Amino acid sequence: MSSNADTLFALFPELLVAVAAMAAMVGGAFSRNATVWWFVCITGIGAAVIALAFGVTVLDGLVALDNLGMITRWAGLILAVLFLLVGHSGVRTKAAGEFLGMLTLVFLGLMLAGVATDIVLLFVSLELISIPTYVLLFLGRSDRRAAEATTKYFFLSVLSSGLFLYGLSLLYGVTGTTQLDAIANRLSSTGASDFVSALLPIAIVFIFAGIGFKIAAVPFHFYAPDVYEAASIVNAGVLAVVPKVAGVVVLIRLASSIAQFETSLIWQIAFVLSIMSMTVGNVCALWQGNVRRLMAYSSIAHAGYILIGIAVGCAETSLGMDNGSGGFAASLFYVLVYAFASLGFFACLAHLKGKDEEEVDDLDELSGLSHHRPWLGGIMAVCMFSLMGIPPLVGFWGKLTLFSGALQTSQSAGWETAVGKWFVVLVIVGAVNAAIAAAYYLRVVGTLYFGDQVGNKGVVGSRPAGYAALVCGVLVVALGIAPSWLMRQCRGVGQRVPQSGSVASVEAFDQSSLTSESVESMLSANP
Amino acid sequence: METLLVITVLGPVVGALGIAVVNRTAPSLSRQIALATTVLVFAMTAILTRSFLVAGSEVLEFAVADLTWLSQDSGADIRFSIGLDGLKLWMFALSALLMITSVLVSWDAIQKRPALFYGMLLLLETGCLGVFAARDIILFYIFFEFTLIPLFFLIGIWGSEQRRPAAIKFFLYTLAGSLLTFLGLLTIIVWVSNAGDSGKLIFSIPLLTEELAIHPLPATLQAAVFVALFAGFAIKVPLFPFHTWLPLAHVQAPAAGSVMLAGILLKIGTYGFVRFSLPMLPVATAMFAPCLLVLSVAGIVYGALVALAQSDIKRLIAYSSVSHLGFCMLGLFALNPVAGQGAMLQMVNHGLSTGALFALVGMLYERYHTRAIDDYSGLAKRLPRMAFFMLLFTFSSIGLPGLNGFAGEIMILLGMFQRGFAEAPLRSGALMKIVAVISVSGVVLGAWYMLWLVQRVFFGPLREPYHDDQHKVVDLNAREILALVPLAVFVVWIGVCPNTFLKPIERPLHLLIQPAAQRWATEMADLERPDNQADEIGLTSIGEIQLDCLDEPEEVCDDVL
User: Fold this and answer.
1) How many helices (H) and strands (E) are present in chain A, helices listed first?
2) Which of A57, A123, A259, B295 could potentially form a cystine with A318 if both were Cys, beta carbons 3.0 to 4.6 Å apart?
3) Are B74 and A329 within 8 A, CB to CB?
4) Does B187 contact A446 at a Cβ distance shorter than 8 Å?
5) A435 contacts B175? CB cut-off 8 A
6) pLDDT tier at A511, thresholds 50, 70, 90
7) Which of A357, A328, A310 shows the shortest CA–CA distance to A66?
8) Residue B559: how many CB atoms within 10 A of its CB?
9) Chain A residues within an 8 Å CB radius of B179
10) Alpha-carbon distance A119 to A469, whole Å?
11) How many Cβ atoms are within 10 Å of B106's Cβ, its own excluded?
């Protein structure tokens, strides 16, 4: 089938990444030379970057190379390089090949999640992030706490995948197709039958439950603090960044397709999750002493901010307001901004060594760090201020787009209407939370700059991690001064463009027929 | 001129980068670079100010640089748009002036990590200059928030014993308020884009003001936005009872930090009220003005009384700031041209006199390492030059005729009395009279605590705190005098010919407070009309609720809000 060949050709960058990952994993069994496999992975990603820059940009079918897809692919590759730099120190463990291979696979999953428009491929790509993460967590640390945390993550993650899959299966059951475009068309042509209106809300709830786990939204967040705390710094960074970006991308993809058929529930769920996540995350973070636990709660809180954008986008789509407030775009922008700032902080931590040559655990070990390592302290402070949302760093633009989008939605719905009022409430909760969040981020900055020197004298661990931190710090500042480009790329994401050809393709799908690709990918997902 | 303004605003950042570059090789060079940068910036500011004055008072805006920042297709046409007008001019110039003083005051006092210190100081300068120059609402907010970062580090690293909690409290308190301000500003932008014809988001402050005059926000929304803006600006001012962060931050901050905090950063709050609340939300301003006047006068009296009871010099001056800023707020919300001009002038006056007083306290602390009033007595014998400057700035602060404080205070009080006795809105006429009368007591109390301070510290029998004899205490040296003389020059200059300084303020201020003042006037006329029909007053597009409000007793109004 020529369309298969086209799809494969379009996914050439992903294939290159996959080949590198496989090579590292298989070859790791024969050669223990970690540096070689590290270079293999980097080369694979570098080749993928070139392939992506000169590759196919237009395609219909199983994958969508739209803005959302392309941004996610680029973000996936950039994050992959940065994480390989951060994880360079992890290479010294025995299973270096496996570690690097798994780490690379995670980003393959992220890239696929961006382009997938078939719900089966969406599910598979999310699993491609989860399954290597289980392995990474086991490889990272080998004490009892790590084992417990990994087990906890494994079971909860499998449960959430199950819920997500169940939601997707309901979607398939209602429409009889796995293609998102076709699903949307089928839903619009069937209209509001009892069958659809009964099953669609259930599907939406399950989808949110599944994605909520990935992005660590309350009440699906319970694993995060424990798992982050017990994981190594690299793994905590992977957990904080990759599933969140992928989850948001998938949520945007799904919500922009189905939001218009469920007028209230979909944005209300996002709304409630958003308020809960922001508040719980920020308040609980206030008294954390462990850096990774602190970042876990910060990650939960940021899931809440991102969900503001999702709620706005869903309300915009489902209430049929075309006001260009761009809730989905704001979410995507925000999650990327969050990813770089958060990763920058984790990279700084990975660059350091704490007590007894171990990784940094307690915030107090960072006390007075900036006296000895001014640049490192500076990068950490910049990342913290960006997460806080202080201008002129990029985090501010994230909050600006989210808040102004929500206010625009409130305005379009009318200030006096219930919807309008709720969105004002959402924005106020967001602003109050931003102030609460400042308290614990400032505690970190205060420890770095005002604390007395104890313990760590700024002993350098892994040098490449330092480079990754520097790149993140520069990105956070540069994007803060010139956010225009990234905002423009994110703009228009999640707005449905009606395709003339897709109506015909719906007719081609039979109720019982799956495309051969999706059957294959479904089989590979269930070993 | 536009280019010069851009260079002036961004110049300190270049200086800070320069310091970062030389940091590794020659950290001691950083203070020279900082001084050179600030002097250069002040020279450019002087040129800008001069050409503004030469251009005459007909020019409303001057040296407008309007550069694309976020392109239109990124969804928000936020521009790097800066320019000067009569309201900004003096605060802009004062920022540049006080920064020289700040650098000179820190010259020997800062031994720990000098490069970082001067870098932060220069970043703070860009923040201050930018806030006053900004013509774009988001750009304003960016500079507004950005000033927090350098000051946070200035207090936290180079402050006294309790610097860490002071820095964090300062940051959190201000940030919490300004986030609500942010929402208020966003609401204004969104409203205008919806109500306006173009449907695009507008970020330019002059354009927004114009658009809001055509499509005013409904009364309830105005009240909500006013409260949101109030949250940030009132904390920044700080208006009683939101002042609790100020004494702590002032006492703990290094001298340069205190100078900038008192001299410039507090004024961002009052400037915010003039620039946003008054012209953009006239109905809400008229509605809330009585409350704000009461809070201002409470701040005046409370700040003065608490200042009287202080045993720490810095804390005393910090509370005097609360009192003086109360005067500024009183002048603004009297909604009267005379009082308004007085308030704008008083902002500059307070920056000069209190900035100088904090610098002097810093010099004193550098010599004796204590701030307790009881530790000192009769210092005029040991430090005659310092005593001279102390007395000069004290007189300026208490409003002695011939010095700058007098012109500002008398205009504020004059305007307030005019508002209270000649043109009070009927509903709160009695209240205005009481406010006007009580506010006068602030002048008396101000003279009391300041003169008493000077008397206790500088006069009487000589008694110095214990200090090791290795370094003999000497009077002000040339550098320290150089830090104070420019301020003293302006103190006298404004005192002798205040009209030079008032002239550029007059017209723009009138334009900004006019809508709210008119609102009061129509309210009066409306109540005096026998038929009490509200539908013919000028502001027909304002929602029904507000019009109902006018006829109801106050409690009902509050319920509606």
Assistant:
1) 22, 0
2) A259
3) no
4) no
5) yes
6) very low
7) A328
8) 9
9) 431-432, 434-435
10) 35
11) 26
CA B351 to CA B92: how far, in whole Å? 12
Number of alpha carbons in the 13 Å side-chain half-sphere of residue B74 = 20
Contact B75 A491 (CB under 8 A): yes
Q: Residue A323: pLDDT above 50?
A: yes
- Which ipTM score applies to this complex? 0.88
DSSP 8-class letter at B539 = -
Q: What's the Cα-to-Cα distance from A142 to each of A94, A135, A136, B544, rounded to whole Å?
A: 12, 12, 11, 69
The list of chain B residues with pLDDT below 70 reads 57-59, 74-75, 197-199, 424-427, 467-471, 524-561
Question: Tokens 């009871």 label which residue?
Answer: B309
- Is there a contact between A401 and B74 if contact means CB atoms under 8 Å apart? no
Quote the CA–CA distance of A492 and B195 in Å, as a whole number.
23
CB pairs under 8 A between A and B: 102
Among residues B179, B176, B151, which one has the least CA distance to residue B166? B151
Give the three-state DSSP class for A290. Answer: strand
Mutation choice for A interface testing from B182, B227, B245, B560 by most A CBs within 10 A: B182
| Amino acid in the structure at residue B116 | L
For residue B482, CA distances in Å to B97, B327, B389, B470 come to 12, 30, 12, 26
Instruction: Tell me which chain A residues have a C-beta less than 8 angstroms from the C-beta of B113.
Output: 371
Question: Any bridge partners for residue A224, and if so which?
Answer: none
Which of A43, A51, A88 lies closest to A70 in space, CA to CA? A51
Task: Kindly report, residue by residue over A276-305, the tens digit of the pLDDT.
Answer: 999 999 999 998 989 999 999 999 999 999
Q: What is the mean pLDDT of residues A182-202?
A: 81
Q: How far apart are CA A183 and CA A368, in angstroms?
A: 56
Cα B113 to the chain's mean position, in Å? 29
3-state SS class at B542: coil
